[in-house]
Amino acid sequence: MKRNLIILITLLYGILFADYEWITHDEWGTYNNQARHIVRFRNYVHAVYCDRMACQIIYLYSSDYGNSWATAETVFQGSMGWVPMWTAIGVDGQNRPWIAVACVRDEFPNWQYGELYLYIRRGINNWRIIPLMSLLFYEVGVPSMVISNTSSSEPMAYITIPFSSYYWPPEHKDTLFFFAVDTNRIWYKKVVDISSTPMTAAISYTPADYFHIVWEKGGRVYYQTILSSITPYLIRQGRQPQWSATVPVSFVSGYPTEPTSNPSVEAQGEWVYVVWRGPNEEGNRDFGEIWQRVGRIRPGDIPEWLYPPKNLSKSPLRESNYPQMSTGAVCVWQESLPNNNEVYVNIKFLFQKNKFSKKDERISSF
């Protein structure tokens, strides 16, 4: 996503009022939707994007709600054999941005490494780099990251990311990892799932450090949380998260919500919101709709999924894809038309029938 697309999402994320101008005509407007590319801390807005042509990861920030922006910084400078692929951003209670960078590195003759790094900003053009993983003959997927409770003086990043062994015969294998890492090192690592088909994953959390992970595997979206609160302090003391059972959240009998792709998750208060791309209401897989499940969080148990899946996009003859949740009320996604591409927003307040903005009121046309 380009700079001004980021500013637009800032408007949705923080209910801000910055001017913006579209400079991209890319049909992948809201891709990749598992990672957060913009975060806000008080009046500060932090943003990141990947420029693959220049092999760079670019960071920029605003101290006035997005009305003006500081000079961009190059966080990662790769080369023809060391290419950044995906990135995600978070911010801690000291207003420091944390950036997860997924890249591929080629070595002679035909060796490829999938790699994951964490960058933590110390000052202007000053970044601490923490290598997290490097796997030979693997491709790297999209990282999704959140930072522990922003009131903590010793924050920790929680990251999910899939690695794909495309170059290791005889069969494909995807491995989904979870990391808990601070400014010094990895404190906890877990294999969430292993699949013979590609996976995509996203993570969110509630302030008491309850994790919420969703991932797509084999045309279905799965959900997992932890059963008791855990803080960075407890993780550093050696306590491990107590994980819940895995829930196939996208499957509901009688609803044409599968096969799925590109899930996203957000947790707010006592609610968790999961969205994904699925078939239209007639079951036609060629025209994607954006489906949502809402669950009530229950400490010590999996959420109570009170409501049936809801179709947010309602565009049965148009392709809707790459949804991203931002708080429980806002979801944005990409929609493809014959002659142009549009980004839509659905803003809905739970328990109210009326919407602040209808889905059909598009927020961009480019």
Question: Could you outline the blueprint of secondary structure elements for this entry?
Answer:
Layout (H helix, E strand, L loop, with lengths): L2 H12 L23 E4 L2 E8 L4 E7 L10 E5 L4 E10 L5 E11 L3 E13 L2 E11 L2 E2 L3 E4 L9 E8 L9 E8 L4 E10 L3 E8 L3 E8 L2 E6 L6 H5 L24 E8 L2 E8 L10 E8 L13 E2 L7 E8 L3 E7 L4 E8 L6 E3 L6 E2 L1
Antiparallel strand pairs: 1-2, 2-3, 3-4, 5-6, 6-7, 7-8, 9-11, 10-11, 11-12, 12-13, 14-15, 15-16, 17-18, 18-19, 19-20, 21-22, 22-23, 23-24, 23-25
Tags for this model:
366 residues; mainly beta; Neuraminidase; five-stranded antiparallel β-sheet; 2 helices; 25 strands; disordered N terminus; disordered C terminus
Number of helices: 2
Which CATH architecture would you pick?
6 Propeller
| Overall pLDDT score | 82
Main beta sheet: 5 strands, antiparallel
At the third CATH level, what is the topology name?
A: Neuraminidase
Number of domains: 1
Could you tell me the number of beta strands? Answer: 25
Report the order of strands and helices.
HEEEEEEEEEEEEEEEEHEEEEEEEEE
Q: Identify the CATH class.
A: Mainly Beta
Low-pLDDT stretches: 1-25, 350-366
Task: Compute the separation of the termini in Å.
Answer: 13 Å
Residue fraction in strands: over 45%
Secondary-structure content class:
mainly beta
Globally, the shape reads: globular
Helix fraction, binned, reads under 10%
Radius of gyration: 20 Å
Quaternary structure state of the chains depicted: single chain
